[in-house]
Amino acid sequence: MRYFVRHVVTLQSPARWIDHLVQESAPNSTLDAARRRSFILPRLAFSGAALVAAPVGFVLGGAPSEHQALIFLLTQTPLASVALLARSGRLDMAQSLSIFGWLAMAACVGALGEGYAPVAVAFVAVALVETALARRVMTFLAGAAAVAMLAVAAGATTPPDLDSLTFAAAPLLVTAPPLLYAALLTMCAIRAEDRRSQAQSSDARDLRLLTDAIGDIVLHLDRSGAVAGVIGDTHRTYGLDRRDLVGRGFFQRVHIADRPAFLKLVSDAAAHSAPLTDLLRVQIGVNPSASGDYVEPIFNYFDARMCRAQPAVNEASGEAIETFVPVVCILRDVTAQKQADEAIAAARAESERATAIKTRFLANVSHELRTPLNAIIGFSEMLSNPAVAPSDPAKQREYAGIIASSGNHLLEVVNTILDMSKIEAGSMQLSPEPFALAALIDQCCNMVQLKADQGGVKIVRDYRRDIGEIVGDRRACKQILLNLLSNAVKFTPAGGRVGVRVAPEGNHLAITVTDTGIGIAPADLTRLGDPFFQASATHDRAYEGTGLGLSVVRGLVGLHGGTITVESAVRKGASFTVRLPLDCRAHETRAPAPAKIEAIPRHGAVIGADIRNEEEMVKQIA
């Protein structure tokens, strides 16, 4: 009681006093404060009314009996429950005390006599109303209510002792306060429920506004990864409806390669309280193909952040009232950032590639230029110095031939570099014309025949002379064949063979150049066609060359709209197949790009030019 007196003195109004009681018992929850206010107000009103009515009863009925004094004390049980709530903050304990008081009053009033049975029933009804609103003590207090009903039925039959009131009017007057209390209690409960509904609606609206403002998709997941709820409307910006995500819909949209990581992320988030993140690819739509025959899925990169949601808690008891604990998943679109990172990585790789190409260029070209220049300078100085110049005309012609050969080699190196520069700059232009492919192959084989004879290599021509004509750049096709044949002869030891075969393949002609040479290691197959790259290249290499031959072939074949296939292994020879269209003019409208090289590691022995290019899954390299 001192607790209430102290607060009544310090506070200026009952409303402020009630607000102070509510703030002390529920300082952190607006909804809980509304519930506690609805608990305090009707109980204070009832106990206060009982205190005000007590003197009137004393005047009308005289000194109360012990039984009536006990009933008056029980009318202050609601006030005691308010004090308990203010002291402990335990709403469940305060509700239990209040219900116990109503049941006790029902038993005492029922003991007054048969005429007060309706009053006792009214008190029991109030107790049952409070029991239903309390929820958690339903079973126990329902049994207590039944006991009170039995007590009422077994009450004494002593008539009421109220001299100023008739026997019929007394129960009605006594019944009115609990009925009014029940009405006030119900009204406060309804008001608290409305406040709760408004608070939930406000929270849901604020959450939607928050998710829409930050642009993230917020999902509730169960332990299996199924979506139990979608918060906000951010998913609509991607053209997705709520039904596209709920259930297993979202899981079906996760990229199949990311689904194991997604399920593991959900499992780990449900088992741990710390938030976890991972990168997922999620399908947001489809893109029809150019032909319209099929559609391709469109995937965006999302940063998935998951954590275990806290279960709903009973404000009164502090216990969890929700057994299903979902996982909250926040999806943030990082596609632009991912693309920017990939662009930066690609630019860095291209920069490193350019640096490596420059290094190889300086190493290879300096070697290729220095050797013939030394020959030109040395033999020209010998011929220009009478003291050392040979007097034999045959020897002089030999020196002049060496100078001419070295000069031609320099010119070939420079022309190759210029052709490669034009191809990379996109300024190489083709001059398509019809020409006989068999005649061009014969010409190229004749040009490398001398070098093959000097190295002890046999050239096998395995193609028909009536192949017909193709439409393409004759000079470019000649350079393609010469580069492939020269490389085959150069890397084939004495006693080996180089073969040339031509076969039609639909609207293309497949030109295959095979050899029984040293072959190419699998690690080097992926780098074939890079400018200035030579397989197993070293500064003391046994084979000369700038490393531009196959790069030029890639560029020229790409300008024709063709493809290149390489099949090789170490000490098992190599096979290069160039597929050219019968008419390259159909590809003139396309942007020029180097031809893709399909690399096939070779297995088994090589027999001359009898090598078949099997149609199989190959590794695509640039």
Question: How would you characterize the overall build of this protein?
Answer:
The protein is α+β, with helices and mostly antiparallel strands and 622 residues long. The protein contains 17 helices and 14 strands. It has helices at residues 2-10, 14-25, 30-61, 66-74, 77-88, 91-110, 117-134, 138-153, 169-214, 249-253, 259-271, 335-384, 393-425, 437-455, 474-490, 522-525, 549-560, and strands at residues 217-221, 227-231, 276-288, 295-308, 327-333, 432-436, 458-462, 469-473, 497-505, 508-515, 563-568, 574-581, 597-601, 619-621. The strands form three sheets. A seven-stranded mixed sheet has the order 7-9-10-12-11-13-14, with helices on one face. Helix 3 (30-61) runs antiparallel to helix 5, helix 6 runs parallel beside helix 8 and helix 7 runs antiparallel to helix 8. The chain is rod-shaped, with a radius of gyration of 49 Å. The model is unreliable at 1-12, 136-141, 154-170, 537-541 and 605-622 (pLDDT under 50).
What is the element layout, followed by pairings?
Layout lengths: L1 H9 L3 H12 L4 H32 L4 H9 L2 H12 L2 H20 L6 H18 L3 H16 L15 H46 L2 E5 L5 E5 L17 H5 L5 H13 L4 E13 L6 E14 L18 E7 L1 H50 L8 H33 L6 E5 H19 L2 E5 L6 E5 H17 L6 E9 L2 E8 L6 H4 L23 H12 L2 E6 L5 E8 L15 E5 L17 E3 L1
Parallel strand pairs: 7-9, 11-13
Antiparallel strand pairs: 1-2, 1-5, 3-4, 4-5, 6-8, 9-10, 10-12, 11-12, 13-14
